[in-house]
């Protein structure tokens, strides 16, 4: 099991980690528009391992048509062992070095504290933002990570990506949660564009991770 969390003041929003709050959809951070989708993407250990590996190697972003650039590791050791109680309160973080991993093209796997640039087009508009990996989870039945905006994006906020292998029925589920606060003038003027952008991103992520939806965009 590995968990890593990185918290510092460089993100451009206050509610760090709020995508894992149980009541996100009812009580999103101020000025933010929440979103959540969950899809069954198969069943069994092999499906879970394949989806988890794809998730941590940036497949959701890259296969969704976004370019992952300028990936830089955390400036110091990652925090590991973070867990949460029933009320969502953090329990006893500890710090240790985590061995970096790379895919066949030399791209580093997701790691807590990394910064990166995402570039592309979403909903017909340019996407260009700097992001930080807030946390990474690798457990026996859950793999995931959280991305937070550092600056330069038309929205500020957070995305969480989780692949869960459910013990009760052997099903594998892919869940994405997010909250977006409009920054760009057009998005502040027409909030519906934020929801449209988010719907398109969710559809792309699903196609990237799930073999059941491997159809062209």
Descriptive overview:
Strand 5 and strand 6 (90-91) form a beta hairpin. The chain contains four helices and twelve strands, in the order ββααββββββββββαα. It is globular. The protein has helices at residues 45-56, 59-62, 185-189, 192-209, and strands at 2-5, 33-43, 67-72, 78-80, 83-84, 90-91, 94-96, 115-122, 125-138, 142-151, 155-165, 171-182. It is α+β, with helices and mostly antiparallel strands. The protein is 18% helix and 40% strand.
Radius of gyration: 16 Å
- Number of helical runs? 4
Mean pLDDT: 83
How many runs of DSSP E, i.e. beta strands?
Answer: 12
Oligomer status? single chain
| Low-confidence runs of at least 5 consecutive residues | 1-9, 79-86, 91-96
Outline the biggest β-sheet: 10 strands, antiparallel
Q: Name the structural class.
A: alpha+beta
Task: Please give the alpha-carbon distance between the first and last residues.
Answer: 35 Å
Shape: globular
> Secondary-structure element order, as H and E?
EEHHEEEEEEEEEEHH
Portion in helices? 10-25%
Please indicate the percent range of residues in DSSP E strands (runs of 2 or more).
35-45%
């Amino acid at each position: 099991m590995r968990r890593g969390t990185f918290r510092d003041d460089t993100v451009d929003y206050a509610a760090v980690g709020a995508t894992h709050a149980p009541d996100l959809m009812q009580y999103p951070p101020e000025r933010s528009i929440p979103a959540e989708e969950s899809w069954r993407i198969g069943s069994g250990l092999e499906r879970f391992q394949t989806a988890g590996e794809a998730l941590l190697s940036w497949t959701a972003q890259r296969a969704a048509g976004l370019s992952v650039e300028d990936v830089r590791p955390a400036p110091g050791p990652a925090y590991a062992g973070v867990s949460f109680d029933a009320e969502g309160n953090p329990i006893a973080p500890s710090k240790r070095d985590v061995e970096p991993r790379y895919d066949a093209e030399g791209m580093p796997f997701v790691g807590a504290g990394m910064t990166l640039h995402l570039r592309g087009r979403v909903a017909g508009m340019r996407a260009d933002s700097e992001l930080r990996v807030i946390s990474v989870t690798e457990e026996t039945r859950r793999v995931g990570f959280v991305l937070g905006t550092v600056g330069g994006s038309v929205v500020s906020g957070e995305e969480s990506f989780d692949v869960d292998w459910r013990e009760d029925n052997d099903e594998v589920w892919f869940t994405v949660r997010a909250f977006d606060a409009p920054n760009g003038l057009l998005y502040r003027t027409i909030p519906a564009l934020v929801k449209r952008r988010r719907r398109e991103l969710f559809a792309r992520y699903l196609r990237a991770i799930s073999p059941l939806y491997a159809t062209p965009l």
